[in-house]
């Protein structure tokens, strides 16, 4: 039985980790870390866990935790994981960091977009970007995983095959993304109140969102050259779900069937990426609560562009689910253990 | 492996049965019945099941189904199950009927409130009312289960201990219930459109809802005398969830602690009924997607009334989950098999 | 042109006052008071008012305000109005207090339920409870109006005719109320975040909500004897709207038509109270954005109870609209000026 | 007093026309046309109008209507207006057609995208595209107005100044639009049920939506050359509102201030177009229920693209409000009469 500790167990991503690990047959949570709720019953904070979790929240002491667990998940704001991680810790436990601290290889880019100093740049090179479908073999051998951001996961998986195959010009990529409100976290902010979010849609972080360089770095690796894109996130009045609509110019005349074949080639053995059938658009309702990413494309012969679409649950494949998937790979388990639940609908 | 067939697999309750049975380790669905979608791929109707269910919808032939399955779930409108069931069928398979056909023992009451003739009154006596927490032993031996209605399940479990113990006057009971919209089904009706349901709350079926006699019959059995109540359902702009707020006059001066002790006595061994801690009100968000019923009470010494509250997912404990729980009991399985998932939040 | 000042202009009720007064032909706002946003542009806080309101928020100085305006609206937390009001102020301006400070005549009851000391008990007697349909003539002559609470307005108007006529036993009254989330205010609280409110319904303040004694005091006046009731509010995932479902035992055998005639007698000349037609239940969607209260009743001959229902917009008739209605009466204007907009649907 | 008749008064756009015209001081509705509800009380279909509208629905007889009214609004499916309009009718009344029948000048394009034969091509040339901010003078003299589509109104006004001024390459335009569900109409379809729309976002009509050629035609006129764009609409779980996020490559190095100056130049005298302040993104909540379009832009120097954004209420400026604005212009009234209401929030 793998012993797991969570730092930040009372945020939405942390709570989703709890839900998923409770259903995992080879892992158990032994440390519910939450600086804000130290000594309080976890099930009082998340009452869905009443009679399921019988634990109190503990402080975020990574060193002590490292002596008691096999894997640590950090579901915390940027900067915290980097400020805590040390070589001695990594010699004892594996870490899956759900924050952005180790996602971007160029520390200057990280510091510019996040506006904070990186406290542990020595681990950036070692850290593996935990997009399982792309870096599976590296993940299996990693000590430190940079769990991808929600938008980058959905954006990248939606466009990856065409970038990798050189069928589109990556510098024409425009990613228009839409997210449910759980992505904004559980902080008490006026902007996230029910009456402010409901009956509303807005763009935010336009031309400035921090997930932009993360997506660009992965795209650059896939394209083999530097890529700059436009990325615009939007806030949607729903709880879970990310939808990506991406646009790019085609470099060749290709049919839908040819493009579909490329997607199938890349994803046919990927349990969690579902390439939909022709003319079926991804919808967030069909993946809610699950680790699936649904993708499909549409070609517009009039403009010679392709529209690439992806839908995913931001808290599962976009955060906690992918973290568990990474854990499974790191510990040599069935990659889908604990993640086989069907999407919940309605 | 238990082979299951579903009649009405494309309604919301039927779809929830599919979701739950996919996660059940000792049952598999071999017949997806749906008169409206015969010969169509099930995963095209419910796209969340893409790559999870590889079956086409079949007609509702109960006789043929009975030769191929061990248990039949009928998640269909009132009257259909009664029109199909026969002694020869019941000799081959067990039936869990999610409709109201066999819930009410007095056929005249059924025919009056439902406005249709009962086509199989000969089975009413044999049918067991499948409220597992109350009729567990009978269920284990039953061939035909009348799976309780969503409102009756939540209403009855919320008030049962106090009625049974004679602490309240059951004829003062007023049950004010609120339900998510999935309870209204997947029929294409203007009243259930997003723009009609959203930003709205309304009562419906006031003093006339068909679940009233079902609740009253069970209450009468518990009280040992005829009981008449007021029951008012309301439609809430959410997908899942039922909340019951019930009021009754206390027959004795009792403290909260005494009442709590009564609830604990009845429910402490019931995995799916969670008696909350003092001053914690049930909320539908804490049970979503799960088979739990959360209950609690509040005493008002000023009016000498008790307010009893219960929250539950109408599609799980109020329909498909309870049906699976009944199946588990009928086949001698662990009662909670396939139903242990934690509630999904947010 | 009546000059109006608002204390608390950046709460939801205050903002609704701004919306309504902008459409009022005989009033204009000259003071936007908001302690939290002093010196900030009002239209930056409420961007719907961009290019419509060209003013900055000012402090809550009631004395200075009194020298510049004809009427002051206080849309503030309990206690503030009582702490500011003085005889010299009331000699200069009329005050419509949207808080509870002057609603309850018995200061001991106020202090018990609200848990604060009343700072201006000397004005309680003079203050008029501003339920226009009941106290119209007193309002016309008042200097200080206690604008009724949202739940009390809807609850009381829904049951008033039957209480006044002695057709029901008021001590059997149970008021089960449901409110949209704007009633919870614009404070940044986790409980009011989108992800916590959406897909959820809960009761709160059970047997302890502060609107209970307010409703009881008005009912006692109507019944001519002390009345105790049960009142249970619920939070509904919608922005606006209150629905009241009230239950009471009938003291006589009466038909729906007889009860309807009583309602018509009380309300046929009331523009803002609409007695619906037989079997039509009030719904919040049909009053949104308007000052209407829709009411109707249903008789249950089985239990000899009557179910009384009312729907209203909590921010309009339940707060800002009724405040404007009171202002209109106090200044001798057409009672409906500024309040004739039809409900917005969908 | 202008007498107005509505064909299709019971759809969402028709109902919004009723709401707006009830508040209009110089127009009154004398004919509520609704083929589906002939002889039924209008206020029974739209209960918000109880005691406000005392009329029964009538058939869609345009000829008879033309003898009784001054202006006819057709809020009906494509093809109906074209099938009814005749020279004799246009000699008697003005027509504002809310359908697409007369929006596209090239009848072949109309017939291809809409898949129906145009029944009155002889009026296409005469019909004026009723985008008031662009075609004001032509509208004043028109007999037949093609009221613009909801998406085209918001899309076009968001990008128009930069296209007209030649600052962007119009053939790089990508319009990613998001709409509330009222845009899908009041038809009883499974896809528009609450449980299907809520907690979901999806693209639809990808590379094939009928509003594409309408936007392109207007853009081509503005650019002075043929323009092809990508247009992708999305369905959002809210009732009202359209948000447009549009992307294009800049043809020159320009600063935000220069671009802002261009928008101000085009819109500073337009009451209904609000150019927001720097870094403020349009949001649908700030225009709900009003005739405003809020626009703003963001420049991305990294990619040399500009992101243009617009928010609007699809039922008001996107349908009924613009129709009333057109009527006002045609009859020489104040253009904003009946349309000055502030946006409703929350």
Explain the overall architecture.
Four copies of one chain form a homotetramer. In chain A, helix 1 (12-22) crosses helix 12, helix 7 (132-140) packs parallel to helix 12 (316-330) and helix 8 packs parallel to helix 10 (211-223). In chain A, strand 12 and strand 13 (305-312) form a beta hairpin. In chain A, 31% of the residues lie in helices and 19% in strands. Chain A has 346 residues and is an alpha/beta fold. Chain A is globular, with a radius of gyration of 20 Å. The first copy, chain A, has helices at 12-22, 42-45, 62-66, 80-84, 87-92, 107-114, 132-140, 150-164, 194-197, 211-223, 256-267, 316-330; strands at residues 2-7, 27-33, 71-74, 94-97, 128-129, 144-146, 174-179, 202-203, 230-235, 242-249, 273-275, 293-300, 305-312. In chain A, strands 8-9-7-10-13-12-11 form a seven-stranded mixed β-sheet. Chains in contact: A-B, A-C, A-D, B-C, B-D, C-D. The B-D interface holds B 12, 181-182, 186, 188-190, 192-199, 237-239 and D 12, 181-182, 186, 188-190, 192-199, 237-239.
Entry keywords:
seven-stranded mixed sheet, alpha/beta, 13 strands, 346 residues, homotetramer
Rounded mean pLDDT score of chain A? 98
Largest interface: A-D, 46 and 46 residues
One letter per element, helices H and strands E, the order of chain A comes to EHEHHEHHEHEHEHEHEHEEHEEEH
What can be said about the biggest beta sheet of chain A? Answer: 7 strands, mixed
What is the global morphology of chain A? globular
Number of strands of chain A: 13
| Helix-residue proportion of chain A | 25-40%
Give the strand content of chain A.
15-25%
Assembly type: homotetramer
Which runs of chain A of at least 5 residues are low in confidence (pLDDT < 50)?
Answer: none
